[in-house]
Design brief:
Helix 1 crosses helix 2. Helices cover about 45% and strands about 20% of the residues. The chain has a 3-stranded antiparallel sheet with strand order 1-2-3. The protein contains 2 helices and 3 strands. The protein has about 140 residues and is of the alpha+beta class. It is globular.
C-alpha cells in the first residue's frame, strides 16, 4: 500500500470513528429524553437486543413517519432467548409507550424515529466489529 493510500485509509477510519461517537452520544441523549431508562436502566446493555422496531409509526420508505391512527406508539426491543426446552424464541419488550398515534406530538414522533434509526446504525457497527475480529483471526 502506497503512503497516500495509507493516509486516505486512516482518514476514512477516523471519520467513521467520529461519526460513530457522535451517533452514540445522540442515542444516549435520546435514551434519556424518551425516558427509556425507566424500563431499561443500563444504557451499556441496550445493544444486547438483536433488533429494535416501532409500533404504529412506519419506517419503510413508502410509509416513513406515517402514524397508524387507532394504534399505540411503542418502541419495541427484540431479543433471542432460550425457552424451557432450550429452543431459541423471539421475545419482544416494550421499551417506551407513548399513547395513541393520533395524539402523538410531532417533535416526540421525530425523536422516537431518530432513536430507533440511530440505534440500528450503531448496531451495524457492533456487527461489523464482530466480523472484523473474526477476519483478524484468519491472519
Amino acid at each position: 500500500m502506497r503512503a497516500i493510500e495509507k493516509i486516505n485509509f486512516l482518514l476514512d477510519r477516523f471519520e467513521k470513528i467520529d461519526v460513530r461517537a457522535n451517533n452514540l452520544k445522540r442515542v444516549e441523549q435520546l435514551f434519556r429524553d424518551l425516558k427509556l431508562h425507566e424500563k431499561h436502566g443500563d444504557f451499556t446493555t441496550l445493544f444486547d437486543y438483536s433488533a429494535m422496531n416501532l409500533a404504529a409509526i412506519g419506517l419503510k420508505h413508502e410509509n416513513f413517519g406515517v402514524l397508524q391512527n387507532g394504534k399505540y406508539v411503542q418502541i419495541i426491543a427484540i431479543r433471542q432467548v432460550n425457552n424451557d426446552s432450550g429452543k431459541k424464541v423471539t421475545k419482544n419488550s416494550s421499551l417506551g409507550y407513548y399513547g395513541k398515534a393520533e395524539k402523538l406530538d410531532e417533535e416526540l414522533k421525530n425523536k422516537i424515529i431518530e432513536f430507533v434509526l440511530r440505534w440500528r446504525y450503531e448496531k451495524t457497527f457492533h456487527q461489523s466489529d464482530y466480523y472484523a475480529r473474526l477476519l483478524q483471526e484468519l491472519n
